[in-house]
Amino acid sequence: MPQLNPNPWFTIFLLTWLTLSLLIQPKLLSFTPTNSPSNKTPMIKTTPWTWPWT
Fold first, then answer.
1. Which InterPro entries does the record associate with it (predicted)?
2. Helices (DSSP H) in the chain: which residue ranges?
3. Backbone phi, psi, residue 41, to 5°
4. What's this model's pTM, rounded to 2 decimal places?
């Protein structure tokens, strides 16, 4: 069974992880978000929910 032999799969895993962390991640982190978070205070609802069975 090939999944029990870690020799080829460990190399593939390491190459994939290195590719993701060294090439793709810096490119993704360089993008600026289009919807930046605002400093707006959240709206607090003061009336409680009325349950029909209480």
1. ATP8_metazoa, ATPase_protein_8
2. 6-19, 25-29
3. -75, 145
4. 0.44
